[in-house]
Structures are given as C-alpha cells and as structure tokens.
C-alpha cells in the first residue's frame, strides 16, 4: 500500500463532486419533511432522474437539457406519491417504498438501451484566474456548474424556510397541520408543492450521478444514495446548513474509501465499500440517541396524513 | 367535486375487493405498458398469468416453479406482516435473507463432507439465527438509541450484499472451484441439500416452513395476547401504552421474528434452488415480499394467495422474457404498479366517496337549521 498516493487536495476536490448528488436529494427531502411529509421514495426518484437525464442528454447531446428532464422526471414520480398520500390518504411509508420499487424497475426498463453509452461532457465552469490559485483554486473553482447550483440550493432553502412568509407557512403546516388548517392555510396544496420540489431535487441529484459523477448508466447505480440522503436529513436535524455538512462528511468517506481501494489498501474492496453505509448508520445512532433533541427538531406532524373533517 | 368522508370502521367489502381490483387494474395498466414496448398486450398477459399454469407446452416445467418461488415470498411476507401491523417497519428483509443464507451455508461448509442427519437441522438453526441477528441490529439501535429502524434495516441490505460478495469471492469460495467465485455446490452434498420432497411438485422444505410460519402467525395474531398487543400498538399506540404493552419488547419481537423468517427463507434457498453462495444469490425476494404482505392485507391467508400470485408474475415474467423478448425489468415495473393501485384503492375501504357540489356551504346550512 502506498499512502503517499493520496493527495489531500485532489481528495477534497473530488469530495465536493461525490457529495453533490446526495446533497441535492437531501435538501429536497428536507423541505418535504419540513412540510410534514415523509417520502421514502428518494431512491426511486433519484434513479428515475438518473436514467431520464442520461437518456435525454445522450439523445439531444446537451447535458443541461438532460438535467432539466431529470428534474421533470423526478417531480413526475413525486406526483404519484402526492396523489397517493395527499389525495387518496395512503400510508406514507408504504407509498414511499412503492415509489422506490417502481422507480428501480422503471429505470432499468428505460435504461436498457443506454448501458455502455458515453454521455456528452458537462463543461466545467470557467473562473478565470480564480481556478489558478494554488490549493484553494483546485479545490473550489474547478467544478462544473451543478456543484455551485447545489450550494446555492442550500442557501436558497435556508433563506426560504427562515426568512420568507411562504417558508414559515410551510413549516407551520409541518409542525401542526390542524392549527395550520385552522389558520386558513391550504395544508394539502403546500404539501403537494413541497413533494414536487423534493422530487425535482432528487431527480437532479440522480442526473448528476449519471452525467457527471460516474458518468455512465448502470442498473441500480444510485446504490442507496437516496437512503443515505434520507439519513442525512435526520443527521442535519432538519437544518439546511447541517445537511451541507452531513453530505460533505459523507462525500469525504466515499472518496476516501475509493482512494484507499485504488491505493491497494490491504482490506478487501468489499469491506471498504461497506463503510459509507456503516458510517451512515453510526451517525444516525449518534444523532438520534438524544431523544429530547430529535423530538424537538423533527417536524411535529411528520409522516401523518391530514384529512380536513367536514 | 368529489368528497371523502372517513368511515367509522373500514369497509369489510372493500377490504376484500381492493386487492382483486388492484390486480385487474394492474393487468390493464401493464397491458398498456407492454403495448408501448411494442408487444401484443393480450399475449403478454396470457403468457404471464395463464400459460405458466395451464398451457400444455410450459405448465409441466413452470407449475412446480410456483411453489419454489412462492415459498420464500410467503415465508418472508408473513414475518414482515406482524411488524407492519404494529407500525414497525422492517424493510431490510433482503439483507436478513442474505445473512441467513450465509450462516446456513457456513454451517454446511464447516461440516463438509461429514454425512450426518444433524447437518440439515443445524443449517436451519443457523439460517434463522443469521436473519435474527441481522434484524437485531436495527431492533437494538431502535430500542436503545431511538434510531429509525426503516433506514437502518434498509442500509444494512447494502452491507449484507457486500458481505455476500466477499463470501462468494473470498472466505466461502470453493477451494476445488479452480478460482471461480461461488461456494461449493450444496446440492452435491447430500447431508445439506434441500431437495424436492415429492418429485416435480416444487415443494421443498422451504415450502413446508412457509406453511408452518403461516399457521404460527395466524395463531399468534388471532389467538394469542401478543397478537392482540401487536394489533393494538399499530391501531392505537396510546391505548397500547395504557394497556401495558412495552414498545421496546414489541420492536425486538417483531423485528426478530421477521428477521428469523427471512433468514430461514435464505437458508432453504441456498441449500435448494440456488444450490450455492454466489455474488448475485439474492433475487429481490425480500423487497417483493413487502408487496406480498400488503397485497395479502397483512393477513396470513391473504399472504398465501398474494405470494402465489407474485410467484406467478416471476415465472410468467421469465416466460414472457423468453417468448416475447419482454425486458426483465418490465415485471419489476408491473409489481411496483400493483402496489400503487393497491395503496390508491385503499381509500375506498377507509373513506366513503361522495359527490358534493359545494360541501362547505351545504354543511353550514344544515348546522344553522
């Protein structure tokens, strides 16, 4: 094994790329959960976004159109979830699971013609002299646009939730849907919009995976990224800033284990590639062990159906 | 406008009618999907649901397959249904299935080539223990640290898959296998082989175990205080606490039981139809079993019927793949749609759908009068 082959600057730069898809999905799910809805279909929406983004990007030759298509595809799948849980009062856990099972099947079906195809390159953003700054430039200023979009998304969601009227209404709906309803807010409308936003974000995250991170289409390529995004929302105590921290922490572990694999670390590959999942579980345990804190942080109506009587 | 009125108690009629309606709707939607894929929808539906059982050409092969595929689905699904009833969501049965198979294969390989009647029962114990152990991780984390069991059990599926790969290519690889991945072939080790009990029926010991599990669960839910606690905890958690139901004990019990059942399913599979540990040993039974549990209304008898039906879609799907060149993933989409329709139609058993032109105003008038 050769540890000197691990370059810390390259590691940090690729950390940002590795974290981006999970960050996008997590920030979307955070808004959904803040509205009081638990959508366990993130994995399904992500992989649907991954395949549709890939397919459209390949057939149009333009990765940006692919990304837009992925947002639409993710939101379309989320719409099914919205109809089931908001319109037809179905159980949210079961509906989310069905979304994941369906999404995995659908993506495999759509993607069978695209295995082994090389997608069009997503260009890196040009920062001019900034990217030539030693160390910092290499870490922060040599990425494609989507990395910065994901950071902007975190900022925008934070601003929306804490500084705008609409964001406060959304939080009110999530904390106590009966009170929000009594105040005259449209609980279901708010929730449907939040669910669609979450689906779009997950779709975009998936497309980033298939178009930039890997970049290739393989069946089941999200490999649990959607579930990890769900865990990161818990880790973040439903705060956008901490979701960023969580995603980057996770990205770091992901990149580190890949680099250790490449460096020929004496542990077999299979055990190293377990580490992201194990670390996610560990982090979940640490975060939720403080019962009082997690109960205070979680939206009060999370996972409950709302049906206005009369 | 349509309006939903909550029923005081769920409708008995729709409780039975929704699964059937959901299956019919899925056939129609599936037909449309197959037509979009450029296949004749009627031929495809017939190939999936009719030919495996009744066609002269295929039935002799595919009829036994029905029990082979339905066995693990039913065994896993009855286990899951107990927890689902109590609001305890073990969605990592796939992982418990893998670990059960690994433990059972481990027992067999440790004894190889000893011929003793003890090997098979020990493998059964090993399989159940492995699944139980894997399910105990989310159970203990839930009860001790309040960690969400949905996420932990699911994440452990990925860990189990990596372990499976490590076993197939590393510590369980066949020493006489010329370096190919995969363990020894257990069907060539008589003491460990899970053969058909009656030739050409497809019934192996896993089917028997599924039958016993169904009986056990039925008695547990209908005749035992524990079953009552399970139902109470799911329907009225607050009332359950006043009635002295210990939530932690229930979590450990439900997850442990479903894990053990899933582990058993893995054991019978690796010793029987799968014959050995390979990298792609798991075929998604643990996830399909979730659909089976819901389609069977979380009721043991319903689960038997649902398990047979989903087994049919597996076999028919393979047939359609072979005959019509229908992609394998189409069946997965088909199964996913089934769950959608089922969840959507459930609204009919819990709510009354009413035609209401201006619900708010008419209500106000009635109140005034």
TrEMBL record, chain A:
Membrane topology reported for the UniProt record: Multi-pass membrane protein
One of the record's GO molecular function terms: transmembrane transporter activity
KW Zinc-finger (keyword) present: no
Segments traversing the membrane: 6-25, 37-58, 64-84, 96-119, 139-161, 192-211, 217-238, 245-265, 271-287
One Pfam assignment: BPD_transp_2
Keyword annotations: Cell membrane, Membrane, Transmembrane, Transmembrane helix
Subcellular locations according to the entry: Cell membrane
InterPro entries: ABC_transp_permease
Keyword Membrane: yes
GO annotation, cellular component aspect: plasma membrane
Name of the protein in question: ABC transporter permease
TrEMBL record, chain B:
Molecular-function GO terms, alphabetical: transmembrane transporter activity
Segments crossing the lipid bilayer: 13-37, 70-88, 95-112, 118-141, 150-172, 203-221, 242-265, 277-296, 303-323, 329-348
Keyword Transmembrane carried by entry: yes
UniProt keyword Membrane, yes or no: yes
Keyword annotations: Cell membrane, Membrane, Transmembrane, Transmembrane helix
Location in the cell: Cell membrane
UniProt GO cellular component terms: plasma membrane
Its membrane topology: Multi-pass membrane protein
Protein name: Sugar ABC transporter permease
